UniProtKB/TrEMBL annotation:
GO molecular function, one term: O-acetyl-ADP-ribose deacetylase activity
Matches recorded under CDD domains: Macro_OAADPr_deacetylase (cd02908)
Domain Macro as annotated: residue spans: 1-179
Superkingdom, natural source: Bacteria
Source organism of the structure: Blastochloris viridis
Protein EC: 3.5.1.-
Keywords: Hydrolase
Source species taxonomy: Bacteria, Pseudomonadati, Pseudomonadota, Alphaproteobacteria, Hyphomicrobiales
Name this protein carries in UniProt: O-acetyl-ADP-ribose deacetylase
Pfam families hit by this protein: Macro
Length: 179
């Protein structure tokens, strides 16, 4: 799809339409459930591609609260790590959903910094079965990532990996509107 560079010195930000399980990055960010138990959508795809070791590693973590993230090895994935971010279920916008979604991105970037990861790929957290409006989620994802990167500049490359052309266009529009 398209690659977008920041205007000032700093990390590369890109938007792609791809299968996140095939990306060669240091970490992919899984749109996980609070039990980290695998499921449908991107979560199920990541668990299938990583192999049975991933569910064992997730069980050992004991879950993750909404708005936060946890990290495991990537096992059979090309990515060295999986960051499991638990996004909010959309309940109309009055249940702190925006802040919880932003927390997923901040927590994921903090883990990337802590583990000195040079590249990270985000799935479109909460926009599938959790029902978060995709355009709103894209704006939150981009704004939160750019704010975090402005402070730290780690990782050096951030990819928004979208499952559809429509999702990618929403992320690109968010980048153009903010960047």
């Amino acid at each position: 799809m398209a690659t977008v560079h920041r205007q000032s010195a700093g990390p590369l930000i890109e938007v792609v339409v791809a299968d996140i399980t095939t990306l060669e990055v240091d970490a992919i960010v899984n749109a996980a459930n609070a039990r980290l138990a695998g499921g449908g959508g991107v979560d199920g795809a990541i668990h299938r591609a990583a192999g049975p070791e991933l569910i064992k590693a997730c069980r050992a973590l004991g879950g993750c609260p909404t708005g936060e993230a946890r990290i495991t090895p990537g096992f059979r994935l090309r990515a060295r790590f999986v960051i499991h971010a638990v996004g909010p279920v959309w309940r109309g916008g009055g249940q702190n959903e925006d802040a919880l979604l932003a927390g997923c991105y901040r927590s994921s970037l903090a883990l990337a910094q802590e583990h000195k990861l040079a590249s990270i790929a985000f799935s479109a957290i909460s926009t599938g079965i959790y029902g978060f409006p995709a355009d709103r989620a894209a704006r939150i994802a981009v704004a939160t990532a750019l704010a975090g990167l402005a402070e730290v500049w780690v990782p050096e490359r951030v990819t928004f990996c979208c499952y559809s052309e429509d999702s990618a266009l929403k992320h690109l529009a968010a980048l153009e509107g903010i960047g």
